[in-house]
């Protein structure tokens, strides 16, 4: 068990800060023990992914890929952001918590403290869960893994800020559900998520399964299906762009692990296909 520097993703948290969030429940389970994918907390506020309110003191997220997460890299601005006792600090800490959950193994953690407005000290410990990029503590985050972390964050975002249990699937071993009970327990295809939050012009995409669109909305999962307003208009979750039906944007489902092997950003012009896609199923 070891701690890692938070400098890299504090920078991302700072760059993406906007809005307020409500307090979220901590993820349950024993420290250092990997939960099932079915136990992931998936209530990341879409405001945490909005790049349109940049903090002037933030580090540039486009430079994250050049740096390993190193304790010596932590800046005073980054430290101030996660120690902010206000709503901006809440949002920064929430995003950072989800990033660690996506990237690191349950045996990895980092911790820090901050003081709220009443003078109470909060000692934070964020644990890895999924383990998509466990070696990020010693290596720079390359383009390939930037996209996996981005897809993971998008898939765990919720319009309502409430936790909905999901089955996340994809090509990495951490998301390989072939031969597991999840394939039979979670059979309702929601859609897929992909993108990159680490480039100078960050983007996230989602697609939906047309047959289950109403069903997933009934479970309060709307970032792929789209949120319906009282007037019937479809709204997206923050910066997550709803491209359309996955049948149009993605390669056919892999029948073994039940995930989309790849998806494209556009149907015409520069399609920019990517295999860093996380497919989500619901019960």
Tags for this model:
283 residues, two-stranded antiparallel ribbon, 7 helices, 5-stranded mixed beta sheet
Question: Which range does the strand content fall in?
Answer: 15-25%
Distance between the termini: 33 Å
Oligomeric state of the chains present here: single chain
How many β-strand runs? 9
The helix fraction, in percent, is: 10-25%
The biggest sheet amounts to: 5 strands, mixed
With strands numbered from the N-terminus, the spatial order across the biggest sheet is 3-9-4-5-8
Radius of gyration equals 18 Å
Unreliable stretches (pLDDT < 50, length at least 5) are 1-39, 51-72
The average pLDDT score comes to: 77
Structural class estimated from helices and strands: alpha+beta
> How many structural units, i.e. domains?
2
Counting H and I runs of at least 4 residues, what is the number of helices?
7
Along the chain, the helix and strand elements come as HHHEEHEHEEHEEEHE
Description:
By secondary structure, this protein is of the alpha+beta class. It has 2 domains: 7-145, no CATH class; 160-282, no CATH class. It has 7 helices and 9 strands. The protein has a 5-stranded mixed beta sheet with strand order 3-9-4-5-8. It has a two-stranded antiparallel ribbon with strand order 1-2. Strands 6-7 form a two-stranded antiparallel ribbon. Helix 1 (7-16) crosses helix 2 and helix 1 (7-16) crosses helix 3. The relative contact order is 0.16. Residues 1-39 and 51-72 have low confidence and may be disordered.
């Amino acid at each position: 068990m070891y701690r890692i520097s938070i400098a890299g993703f504090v920078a991302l948290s700072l760059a993406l800060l906007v809005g307020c969030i409500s307090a979220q429940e901590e993820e349950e389970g024993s420290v250092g023990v990997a939960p099932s994918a079915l136990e992931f907390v998936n209530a990341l506020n879409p405001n945490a992914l909005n790049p349109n309110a940049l903090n002037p003191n933030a580090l540039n997220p486009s430079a994250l890929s050049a740096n390993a997460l190193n304790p010596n890299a932590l800046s005073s601005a980054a430290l101030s952001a996660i120690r902010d006792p206000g709503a901006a600090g809440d949002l920064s800490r929430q995003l950072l918590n989800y990033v660690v959950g996506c990237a690191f193994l349950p045996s990895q953690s980092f911790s820090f403290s901050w003081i709220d407005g009443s003078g109470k000290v909060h000692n934070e410990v964020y644990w890895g869960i999924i383990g998509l990029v466990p070696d990020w503590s010693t290596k720079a985050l390359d383009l390939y893994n930037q996209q996996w972390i981005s897809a993971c964050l998008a898939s765990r975002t919720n319009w309502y800020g409430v936790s909905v249990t999901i089955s996340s699937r994809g090509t990495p071993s951490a998301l390989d559900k072939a031969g597991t009970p999840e394939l039979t327990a979670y059979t309702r295809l929601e859609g897929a998520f992909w993108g990159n939050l680490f480039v100078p012009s960050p983007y996230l995409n989602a697609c939906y399964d047309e047959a289950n669109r109403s069903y997933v909305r009934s479970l309060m999962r709307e970032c792929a299906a789209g949120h319906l307003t009282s007037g019937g208009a479809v709204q997206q979750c923050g910066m997550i762009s709803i491209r359309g039906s996955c049948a149009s944007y993605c390669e056919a489902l892999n029948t073994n692990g039940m995930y989309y092997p790849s998806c494209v950003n556009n149907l015409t012009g520069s399609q920019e296909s990517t295999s860093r896609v996380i497919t989500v199923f619901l019960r």
